[in-house]
């Protein structure tokens, strides 16, 4: 059976043609349908791009293509509408989050896959249940936690404790909490049950002979992980990194709650504020959308194979 | 989830080594587990705790289940409502399983099932009526049918379009890779940006893309995201009230965005599913002289059922959790007809600052999602053919 199972691409290995459309009329209809579908997918992108290059007048009227492309719109969106700052914020938040996820998930996945310890199955099952929990359930306590309401004021920010709060502890855990900080926007996302699950599947398949050999050479788990497991797991790690990147870049609800000023506001929230602002110019709004979308598209085009493979394996076998 | 425990040589008998191994493992999992516990698990308990307090920005008095009373209105009504819903499930089970051994089992099952179904409908609407009457804050209850519309109008369409596209791509066509890549684009697009674009596409301006499109069919421009009228009224001109009036045009505009975003994802997964159907089955069908429709009906669809089940569960839960696109696309003049449960929770929390009430709403939504997953697993999970 193994030889007939296709690759993830849905590329069946020379299946007999009988149950596929063959007549030229049929093929024509097939392509026609596919092209119509693609048109539906593409039109919003095309329209967004074109509108972002229009003058305000053009964007409000029936135009589909700008008479003269207004590249200037991007400069205005970047500077005046502050998308430049949001962009840099998003990049930093995303990079920090992705690295956090990679380091923590690799360590945890390795332990879950290759070390026997009491409570392993139980803890792992608990982690997986968090995948089902809607963000609206966790957001309110997390907001209070980040704001410092749960621990901060009662325990550490008591008046008698003022001196302690001027130490390094206070700079990382100020009394007014983590609102508008990079920590608030990255750390809660670093524990990723999904990434751990994906990597654990892969790490479990690495032959035990390698571990035996490494142990004879005097290596511990950490060295084995870094020197043997990681170099052999670049593909799944890449997949996890891509998912983490997209998740971090697209996150909206949480950043919306924990940012009240532009300091660390990411693109998604900046764009939302711009969209819902009454006086916003449509062409600049579309330029902002393009700025938000482009990094993801670039990532997608360059890592497409990894990407689809990751989606399919996590989708079908998860 | 086919998680296999790694086959592992039994560790050395020295308990000291074992202890050190375990210690290493705990250190390895500590960072990730601590964060997940803190930001993923702890909040559930804390939400429960908060929901029992009169908590408006600051923690207030302990009030027990008063928030739940406020939201659900009436305990007997809620019980009746839940019982009515379970009767629907019972009706399905009767219709599907019972009386199979009898000669005219189908007929009896059909009749009994129909009776149970009618009873369920009656009890449900009775319970719902009491809940609506009793509630002192109807936002969340009114959000539930809207969430249901959003799910019902989103999921089947996304799945069937996805299957159609996958089936087309499965044929011997050129440029399969390119097509697949393009169809997948909307899924990776940041939701807020996509919603910003669709918000202007479905704007009520005469020159908006959506109005130009209906203009091609000679129709009058519509108000789309700002139109709170139910679609039955717009399509058929009838003035229905209540649940059967259907979603508003504003909600449907958001549903369209969902179709656009998720169809390609479903297509890619379906395509992989199609590719893993063993080839000998098709050959056997060919020998038996089956035609293309029969092959699709009796081989392709049943063998795809695990994929279909997986996708529908994911999509259904996804619509119940959906927030981003709805929040960005919602307009004041939609008059709350797009406010699904998640949106109501967020509003209660942010605009209303009633943290305790919002926590109670969130807990109820969580229970609903859990119950739905269970029912889906029970009813459809067993029907799935896993080869």
Briefly characterize the structure.
Chain A is mainly alpha-helical and 318 residues long.
Task: Describe what you observe in this structure.
The complex is a heterodimer of chains A (318) and B (387). With 318 residues, chain A is an all-alpha fold. Chain A has a domain of 198 residues: MetI-like (MetI-like fold, Orthogonal Bundle), CATH 1.10.3720. Chain A has 18 helices and no strands. In chain A, helix 3 packs across helix 17, helix 4 crosses helix 11 and helix 11 packs antiparallel against helix 14. The longest helix of chain A has 32 residues. The two termini of chain A are 21 Å apart. The N terminus of chain A is likely disordered. In chain B, 71% of the residues lie in helices and 0% in strands. In chain B, helix 5 runs antiparallel to helix 12, helix 5 crosses helix 14 and helix 10 packs across helix 12. The longest helix of chain B has 37 residues. The relative contact order of chain B is 0.11. The N terminus of chain B is likely disordered. The interface between A and B is large, with 123 and 119 residues.
Low-confidence stretches of chain A: 1-16
Give a count of the beta strands of chain B, DSSP E runs of length 2 or more. 0
Instruction: Report, as a whole number of angstroms, the end-to-end distance of chain B.
Output: 15 Å
Q: Report on the biggest sheet of chain B.
A: none
Helix and strand sequence of chain A? HHHHHHHHHHHHHHHHHH
Annotated CATH homologous superfamily of the domain at 82-279 in chain A: MetI-like
Radius of gyration of chain B: 25 Å
Descriptors for this entry?
heterodimer; A: 318 residues; mainly alpha; MetI-like fold; 18 helices; 68% helix; flat; disordered N terminus; B: 387 residues; 2 domains; 15 helices; globular
Secondary-structure map:
The complex is a heterodimer of chains A (318) and B (387).
Chain A: H1 24-52, H2 56-60, H3 72-79, H4 83-114, H5 120-129, H6 135-147, H7 152-156, H8 162-165, H9 168-172, H10 182-190, H11 193-203, H12 208-216, H13 221-229, H14 234-250, H15 253-258, H16 267-276, H17 282-302, H18 304-317
Helix pairs in contact in A: 1-17, 3-17, 4-10, 4-11, 4-14, 4-16, 11-14, 14-18, 16-17
Chain B: H1 15-51, H2 66-72, H3 75-96, H4 105-134, H5 139-170, H6 176-188, H7 191-201, H8 209-216, H9 231-236, H10 249-275, H11 279-287, H12 292-321, H13 324-329, H14 341-350, H15 355-379
Helix pairs in contact in B: 1-15, 2-15, 3-4, 5-10, 5-12, 5-14, 6-10, 10-12, 14-15
């Amino acid at each position: 059976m193994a030889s007939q199972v296709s690759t993830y691409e849905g590329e069946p290995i020379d299946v007999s043609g009988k149950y596929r459309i063959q007549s030229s009329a049929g093929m024509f209809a097939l392509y026609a349908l596919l092209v119509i579908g693609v048109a539906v997918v593409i039109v919003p992108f095309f329209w967004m791009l074109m509108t972002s290059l229009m003058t305000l007048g053009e964007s409000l009227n029936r135009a589909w293509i700008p008479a003269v492309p207004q590249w200037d719109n991007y400069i205005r969106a970047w500077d005046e509408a502050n998308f430049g700052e949001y962009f840099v914020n998003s990049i930093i938040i995303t990079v920090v989050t992705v690295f956090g996820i990679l380091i923590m998930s690799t360590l945890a996945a390795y332990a879950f896959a290759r070390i026997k310890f009491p409570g392993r199955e139980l803890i792992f099952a608990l982690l997986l249940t968090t995948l089902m929990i809607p963000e609206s359930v966790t957001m309110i306590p997390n907001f209070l936690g980040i704001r410092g309401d749960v621990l901060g004021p009662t325990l550490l920010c008591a008046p008698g404790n003022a001196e302690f709060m001027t130490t390094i502890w206070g700079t990382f855990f100020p009394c007014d909490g983590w609102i508008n900080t990079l920590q608030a926007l990255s750390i809660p996302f670093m524990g990723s049950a999904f990434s751990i699950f994906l990597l654990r599947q892969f790490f479990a398949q690495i032959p035990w002979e390698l571990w035996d050999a490494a142990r004879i050479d005097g290596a511990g788990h950490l060295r084995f992980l870094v020197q043997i497991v990681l170099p052999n797991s670049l593909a799944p790690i890449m997949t996890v990194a891509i998912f983490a990147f997209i998740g971090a870049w697209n996150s909206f609800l949480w950043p919306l709650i924990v940012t009240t000023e532009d300091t660390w506001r990411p693109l998604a929230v900046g764009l939302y504020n711009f969209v819902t602002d009454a006086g916003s110019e449509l062409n600049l709004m579309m330029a902002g959308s393009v700025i938000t979308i482009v990094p993801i598209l670039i990532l997608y085009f360059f890592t497409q194979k990894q990407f689809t493979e990751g989606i399919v394996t996590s989708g079908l076998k998860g | 989830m086919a998680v296999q425990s790694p086959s592992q040589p039994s560790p050395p008998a020295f308990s000291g080594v074992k202890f050190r191994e375990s210690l290493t493992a705990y250190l390895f999992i500590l960072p990730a587990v601590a964060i997940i516990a803190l930001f993923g698990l702890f909040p559930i308990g804390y939400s429960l705790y908060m929901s029992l307090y009169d908590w408006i920005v600051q923690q207030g008095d302990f009030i027990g289940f008063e928030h739940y009373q406020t939201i659900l209105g009436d305990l007997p009504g809620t019980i009746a409502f839940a019982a009515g819903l379970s009767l629907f499930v019972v009706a399905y089970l009767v219709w599907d399983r019972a009386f199979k051994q009898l000669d005219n089992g189908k007929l009896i099952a059909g009749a009994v099932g129909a009776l149970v179904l009618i009873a369920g409908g009656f009890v449900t609407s009775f319970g719902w009526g009491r809940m609506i009457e009793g509630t002192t804050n109807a936002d969340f209850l009114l959000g539930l049918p809207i969430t249901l519309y959003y799910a019902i109008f989103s999921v089947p369409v996304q799945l069937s379009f996805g299957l159609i596209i996958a089936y087309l791509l499965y044929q011997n066509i050129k440029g399969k890779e390119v097509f697949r890549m393009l169809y997948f684009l909307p899924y990776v697009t940041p939701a807020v940006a996509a919603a910003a674009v669709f918000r202007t596409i479905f704007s009520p301006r005469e020159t908006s893309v959506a109005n130009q499109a209906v203009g091609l069919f000679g129709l009058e421009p519509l108000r789309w995201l700002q139109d709170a009228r139910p679609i039955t009224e717009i399509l058929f001109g009838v003035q229905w009230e209540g649940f059967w009036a259907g979603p508003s045009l504003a909600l449907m505009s958001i549903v369209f965005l969902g179709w656009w975003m998720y169809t390609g994802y479903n297509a890619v997964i379906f395509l992989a599913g199609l590719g893993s159907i063993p080839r000998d089955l098709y050959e056997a069908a060919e020998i038996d002289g089956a035609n293309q429709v029969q092959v699709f009906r009796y081989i392709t669809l049943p063998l795809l059922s695990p994929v279909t089940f997986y996708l529908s569960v994911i999509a259904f839960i996804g619509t119940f959790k959906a927030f981003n696109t709805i929040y960005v696309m919602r307009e004041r003049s939609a008059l709350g007809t797009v406010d699904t449960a998640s949106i109501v929770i967020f509003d209660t929390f942010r605009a209303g600052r009633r943290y305790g009430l919002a926590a109670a709403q969130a807990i109820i939504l969580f229970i609903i999602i859990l119950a739905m997953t269970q029912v889906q697993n029970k009813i459809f999970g067993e029907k799935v053919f896993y080869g």
